[in-house]
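Good morning C.,

I know you're traveling, so I'll keep this short. The sequence:
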Amino acid sequence: MNQILIIGGGITGLAAAYRLEQITPYPITLIEKSVRLGGKLFTEQVDGFTIEAGADSFLSRKPRGVGLCEELGITGQLCGRDPQYNHTFIRRHGQLHPLPEGLSGLVPTNLEALNNSPLLSPAGKLRVAQEPFIPPAENPGDESIAAFMSRRMGGEVYAELVEPLMSGIYAGDGTQLSLAATFPQLRQIEQKHGSLLKGLSSPNNRDALYPPFVSFNGGMGEMITLLAAKLKRTTILTGVGVADLQRTTAGYIAHLENGQHWAAAAVIVATPAYVTAQLLASLDAELATAHAAIPHASSVTVTLGYAAAEIPHPLDGYGYVIPRVEGADLLACTWSSRKWHGRTPDGAVQVRLYLGRYGGQELVSLNDEALFGLAQAEMKQIMGVTARPRLQRLYRWPNGMPQYTLGHLERLATIETRLTHHPGLFLAGAAYRGVGIPDCIASGEQASERVCEWL
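The tokens, ready to paste straight into the viewer:
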């Protein structure tokens, strides 16, 4: 019987395995190098604190996140953010300013709210108001996010508002990120309506079944636990990596780092692009090179816990983002105990800071003391906290976020062309067409469906 092999046990690989169990009768093996499943989805419970190592939520409007939860029967475990703190701030010149209302994705659409914000100069506000009169570019090519938003709304609104929001998604540099690969809908709106403000002005009256951002009562790691528990026919091997992949007359053979071999008729590779490049190097040099050309950003998340009385700031929101023009190594700070119910002991506060800016200082190489020092310095400067935290946790994510830089779609075209030479080999994950959790789930499921069609 045809054996199916999945390399990579993050959310992509697990979603692929679950879909395969639903649509094929074939035996499935999933191999994960780490001793645990889930990749960047990892939650720790420490002294009453629920601590997220990676993503703390996902977008409900992207269908395959909540769609998979519905199929698994676990929607009862989903939770939304606390609505009473539904505010976000931007740190500018060392002060926190409310994010203007009316943002549609990256685009500020409420000109009245924008005019009342101190984040833009009068000239910057006027430039935004002129956006409907800016003609669309006829043939801009593979335009960067920064170039597109500056062309449509002005460089000031990009630097002060769009860039920190974009960095919160990709942790990248908007002057290098491809609009066509990240936010193609914005270019489509420009082409269809001639203006972002015109195209985004129509009210959205659809009733949403779920809050815009959802998590799990016990943290995002709960999603991995619940999904893995639903796998009934998948053999899971953890704590062992795949050294390389070779073609055989019957399919493929994976050479494991422990000296074992694993044969399969079809293989789904669901690893980060730089890992995929290593796995495929001896199989197809051009395919490996295309993966190695995808840049990655590194980051660190630092969680701090305090007694509520030790925080002089009211924490009247979900937290704040920090634009690149601030010159800081930090991207954002989430006030986790305001954002989510039940994540701290009574009388305690939890905050989470995101360190590491693409193209900036390589913070993952700093020792723990230095990283905690950066986080505590931010707490003191912005929120007036002088007490030492009662809890500290940090998580390093070297090369954790793929960057869809200019030319990304051309790289994907090369990858897809080379794959035609390797029937039975399929690729999935955040490196290709979406970095969010629902994107990764959809990628894994689509790879499984292609396996089924091929077999």
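Safe travels,
E.
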